[in-house]
């Protein structure tokens, strides 16, 4: 199942089961049964139908949302071999470390928001009736070097747009990893029918603004004194790129 697929359940119990699994990641079947107070036979029937319809899959004695697997890619960037792949729940701790490290620099407010949401929800990918997100990570050996995050609105009037954030840990900058991540996120969005990507950046983050401009992004608007960073008011630069 793609995170852009429509969700259509013909039974309220199956909707409840999907929503529980979607919000908790990989969970044991008996946990689902206890949490939702299901008879074991009834739960088994519902899980079978959800698997048949492509909403969930069984992994051992756990069940999880059956997100479509995205292609894993490897690039040789100077002396680094970098793998770009779809993020997974096992990446959560490393993702939070990486995003918080970048956010602590104080010039990427959107990264702080992504970290707060991930920390609160404790699930990497999401797809429900209110919100969806896709994430890719860049790894070097066993280290998570960076990420690209796509926030996908479910509202019909905004469903052609997505908010993209991308970041690379300081130790891995200067090798082109950001280019690979931005390219992967942009490609995925275009392939899934999105027409426009957005990102908002403090005006003091000149490096990020130049980086996006070099990849065809443009400033659509500026909100004066939108941020207050270290007791200083900072403008918000609202950037976008068309995928059409």
Helix residue percentage: 25-40%
Seen as an oligomer or otherwise, the chain set is: single chain
Low-confidence stretches: none
Please report the number of helical segments: 7
**Biggest β-sheet: count, sense, barrel?**
9 strands, mixed
Radius of gyration: 19 Å
Secondary-structure element series: HEHHEEEEHHEEEEHEHEE
Termini separation: 24 Å
Folded structure, characterized:
The protein has seven helices and twelve strands. It is α+β, with helices and mostly antiparallel strands and 244 residues long. Strand 2 and strand 3 form a beta hairpin. Helix 1 packs across helix 3 and helix 4 packs antiparallel against helix 5. The model has no long low-confidence stretch (mean pLDDT 93).
């Amino acid at each position: 199942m793609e995170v852009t697929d429509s969700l259509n359940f013909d039974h309220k119990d199956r909707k409840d089961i999907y929503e529980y699994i979607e919000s908790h990641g990989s969970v044991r079947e008996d946990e689902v049964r206890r949490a939702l107070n299901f008879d074991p036979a009834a739960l088994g029937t519902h899980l079978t139908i959800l698997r048949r319809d492509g909403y969930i899959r069984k992994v051992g004695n756990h069940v999880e949302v059956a997100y479509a697997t995205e292609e894993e890619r490897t690039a040789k960037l100077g002396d680094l071999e970098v793998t770009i792949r779809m993020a997974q729940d096992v990446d959560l701790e490393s993702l939070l470390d990486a995003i918080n490290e970048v956010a602590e620099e104080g010039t990427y407010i959107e990264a702080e928001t992504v970290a707060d949401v991930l920390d609160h929800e404790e699930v990497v990918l999401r797809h429900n009736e209110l919100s969806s997100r896709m994430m890719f990570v860049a790894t070097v050996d066993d280290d998570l070097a960076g990420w690209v995050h796509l926030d996908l609105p479910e509202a019909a009037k905004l469903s052609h747009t997505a908010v993209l954030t991308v970041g690379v840990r300081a130790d891995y900058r200067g090798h082109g990893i950001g280019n690979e991540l931005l390219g992967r996120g942009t490609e995925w969005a275009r392939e899934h029918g999105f027409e426009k990507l957005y990102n908002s950046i403090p005006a003091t983050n000149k490096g990020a603004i130049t980086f996006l401009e070099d990849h065809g992004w443009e400033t659509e608007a500026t909100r004066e004194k939108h941020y207050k960073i270290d007791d200083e008011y900072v403008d918000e630069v609202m950037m976008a790129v068309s995928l059409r």
